[in-house]
Specification:
Layout (H helix, E strand, L loop, with lengths): L3 E2 L3 E2 L2 E2 L21 H13 L2 H12 L13 E4 L28 H10 L5 E4 L10 H11 L4 E6 L9 H7 L4 E5 L5 H7 L5 H17 L5 E6 L8 H10 L4 E5 L8 H8 L9 H13 L3 E5 L10 E2 L2 H4 E4 L4 E3 L13 E2 L3 H5 L2 H12 L17
Length: 383
């Protein structure tokens, strides 16, 4: 059976989302904030400003995206601006790093160099394994720099520092398109037991703050994101209520826990993984509850796309992940260059067509899936 990538097309323009009916049983999957039209409109502007970018995107669309050496540059990238965090979450490997830190912060100058060199980019995420607001003003400047080029920018934060140094205002005013905020409990006990080192009340207050700032500007930028696990499985309805109460218009339940490409973390997170327990009737009831509160609810399963035997992960063929210390990692699920690295430095062109990434693609195409990737190709779909 021929392999194909699981990237779907919307009106001739690509938006990555789970395939309908795979793993999530046809439930709604996360869409851009505020909506898909805004996402596609910004893409059209981005492409219209650069003939070179447009030509690359056309080549990307026309390709089958199964080449060992693609005839286009990556259209999306993740930039890990910091590899350090002020939380020690139970399901995250950052909690084991000495003092919650792995490497140096990404320098603003290096970020700008990659943005300028990688003419194919139409979308980026600024965040990796760490809390991005710890970098202070360079973080906001990275977002502004990309947005000045109409690149769609998404970021993720734990919201713990948004009340300090005007961070909430700076983030909103940076022009960022989407802010995912991690909320893994609906009360203090549950939240703080999972997101260790947090203060529930402060995070909730900060979420309300940034949502008010967005409302005052007449924009929607935030999405509440919950990693469903044994410790919060009983609170799904409460989490919907919480989202509405603190001003979220969009939220998602992530139904699996990643392993960072490591067998030990696969065992640990499998022990608290409860995705198979969520049945369709309960999901529909949650969707109804969210709709009554004016909240758009979606369900996400990162591995659901790759459980069918005819599909392979699109990451090696379409995008790149640059760690804070300028090492290229195959994907955001692995995230840690100490686990798997396919290149180094700001010269992404050399890495994109380099031997390490070429071999990585070759193995996917041959069905010889690298060990660090196997966690995304296994598991049971939502019933």
């Amino acid at each position: 059976m021929a392999l194909r990538n699981s990237t779907g097309a919307v009106g001739g323009e690509v938006y990555v989302a789970d395939d309908s009916g795979q793993g999530l049983a046809g439930l709604p999957t996360p869409q851009p904030v505020p909506d898909l039209n805004a996402y596609l409109r910004e893409r059209r502007i981005c492409l219209s400003r650069s003939p070179e970018k447009l030509a690359n995107f056309v080549a990307f669309l026309q390709a089958d995206r199964r080449a060992e050496q693609p005839a286009y540059w990556p259209t999306r990238m993740d930039f890990e601006n910091v590899s350090r965090c002020n939380f020690h979450c139970t399901m995250c490997k950052v909690s084991e790093w000495p003092k919650g830190r792995r490497g140096d912060d990404l320098r603003l100058e290096d970020f700008k160099t990659v943005i300028d060199q990688q003419v194919g980019l139409v979308e980026i995420k600024v965040q990796g394994l760490g809390e991005p607001t710890l970098q202070r003003d360079d973080y906001f400047e990275m977002i502004r720099y990309a947005r000045q080029r109409h690149i769609w920018v998404r970021t993720t934060t734990n919201a713990s520092l948004l009340h300090l140094h005007g961070n909430a205002r700076k983030l909103v005013d940076s022009g960022v398109n989407e802010i995912q905020i991690s909320i893994d409990g609906a009360d203090k006990a549950t939240f703080e037991s999972i997101r260790r080192g947090s203060v529930f009340e402060q995070v909730v207050e900060n979420c309300a703050l940034i949502n008010r700032l967005c409302a005052e500007r007449g924009i929607e930028r935030t999405k509440m994101w919950t990693v469903v696990q044994k410790g919060n499985r009983h609170q799904l309805a409460d989490l919907v209520e919480l989202a509405a109460r603190i001003g979220f218009k969009s939220m998602a339940f992530s139904l699996d826990l990643v392993d960072f490409g490591m067998a030990d973390w696969r065992r640990r997170n499998d022990a608290v993984n409860v995705d198979a327990s969520l049945k369709r009737d309960e999901a529909l009831a949650l969707l109804d509850l969210a709709a009554r509160h004016g909240v758009k609810l979606a369900f996400w399963s990162v591995a659901a796309k790759y459980r069918a035997p005819d599909k392979i992960c699109p990451w090696p063929f379409e995008r790149a992940y640059l760690s804070s210390d300028l090492r290229v990692v195959p994907c955001c699920v692995i995230g840690d260059p100490d686990v798997c690295e396919v290149g180094r430095g700001v010269d992404l062109a050399a890495v994109w067509h380099g031997e390490a990434l070429t071999e990585f693609r070759r193995r996917h195409l041959a069905g010889d899936i690298p060990a660090v990737c196997k966690g995304c190709y296994t598991g049971q779909p939502l019933k």
